[in-house]
Amino acid sequence: MNIEERQYPIGKFEHVDSLSEELISEKIAIIESLPQKLEEALENTSEEKLNESYREGGWTAKQVVHHIADSHMYSIIRFKHTLLEDKPTIKPYEENIWLSLADTKEASVNESMLIIRGVHSRWVKLLKSMTPQDFQKEHFHPEHQKNISLFTNLSYYAWHCQHHLAHIKLVTE
Prior knowledge:
By secondary structure, the protein is mainly alpha-helical. Helices cover 62% and strands 5% of the residues.
């Protein structure tokens, strides 16, 4: 497996234009299943293994789990702002800098798994309550200089779940 395949083991995110209730349900199911799939992938994994990277220059499995917790906390907040405000401008964050802070450097994988389980439980309740019209609501992303719909965000985070789960499996399997 070359470096690009290890960086994008499921391929790069591809935007889907066609919004359908079936596709929405499929994406929500992926988000809903992530905590269980992560627990299975991490089961009986040694601390030594957790500190291995899935590719040269990449994050360790432990950092990936902490990143998922950070990123998905941020995502539910973006969803809420977008549902409650008219095209809000979201605040981007520097993933690598967040991973350098003590709460991630010193935290165990189990601490981030508690966050992931809780956030995903709440996030899925929110997602399942949304209408197809809600998924058309947009926020402005200043890094990308464009409006992004909640459906695109849902699709991205479903991909994000599978993408990082694949990274962890490259280390743990």
